[in-house]
Amino acid sequence: MHPNMVFFAQTQHTPRDYQGERQELKAPIDVTYADKGHLHIGEPIADPRNAVSQILASNYYPERFYLRGVHNGTKPFIARTLKDGELDTSFNKTGLVYLTDLSTVFDYHSFSHMAEDAEGHILLTMIDRTQGFTHLWKLKPNGKPDTDFGSNNGYIILNNFFNFKDITLYQFTTYKNDYIFSGSLENAPILFVLTHEGVPRQSFGKLGILKMQDLIPDLRYVIGAPKMLEVGEKVRIIIYTRYFNDSSSINGIAALTLSGALDQRFADNGVYWSKPGIIIYDFTLNNASQRITVHGQVWSEGTSTPMIYRLDYTGKPAKEFNEGRVVLFPIEGGWDYMTEADGKLVGYGSFLDRGMAVRYRLDGQLDTTFVPPNGYGVFTAIGSQPGFYGNSHSATVMPESQRLLVAGREIQTGSTPCVIAVSLKQ
């Protein structure tokens, strides 16, 4: 394997007032969202599992958002909210579905992922602790189980399709009512596709299962949720992958056809391989600009440096972004989320004992009109102080309201599942 190496380059802009880890400015919170910029689910308890772990912008309902998380330490929930942070009472009458209420037979203490299909159904993967099997539930847009799915009960047991071998399914996406999963089968990476009827897509891989090592020998992982690249009639499944050589891990962005073949016209025979040391957290697609934004960190000599690079839809470095090179940030940490919105790159990251929001121009320079003069600012609690803490690599941008919503928890007298709204109006 011959990785296509990314060339490194420091950002051309160095924050002017950075003198130490306590010197950053505060990012603005949009106090018109929910309760002074914070949406809370339930009451605080002394349990760190109390948190929102995923935000999903609905494509079916404009300016509505789904949240998944855990309350009371053992009660996984899904909520639907309106644009200003109020619970949407057209969803299960309260805006909330506690997943422990879906079944009295199974023991659901957490769930892995959620996605929305083209008809507004919500798909949820949950692990039943009594058997260790992964279940896929399908909820109607009103929050009730779709009893036409599965054996007229609203769910299917995914392990059934693998003869109960050692299977782990991670995250998934939907495309025209197909459900595309990343996972591992007997410790080898796979993609798995189900139809909206809950049966394997026969035209994908072998009976719906694609063993990724058949395409990329020695591949160790397919990570995160697949994403769909769409330009006209061209549709590709984009994933990020990882394998290990003798001294380090190599991360890559791969493009596959809907039948499960590598798109040989994408990058280097279907995969863009990053330089050793680059650790991809995730990536986002923008079909309008035809750009892939890759974010995470560079690990070198015990230090993590936040990084971003961008590819065009052919898998080549986007030349307008820092001349096609990686952009590094001069404070130790990593970018948890980054997306293109309103002609800018917007995201946030984790930095030792705090979280910071950032905005870049599309040429790779920090946008110093955001939290001037830096282009970034702290929006979380610092250290062990009371306040908001980001819980996962999950966020979304509300372009019309100019907000960055970040999932996490707020710690005061206890831990409360929480979403915070960072204002992007500057």
UniProtKB/TrEMBL annotation:
<dbReference type="InterPro" id="IPR013431">
    <property type="entry name" value="Delta_60_rpt"/>
</dbReference>
<dbReference type="Pfam" id="PF17164">
    <property type="entry name" value="DUF5122"/>
</dbReference>
<protein>
    <submittedName>
        <fullName>Uncharacterized protein</fullName>
    </submittedName>
</protein>
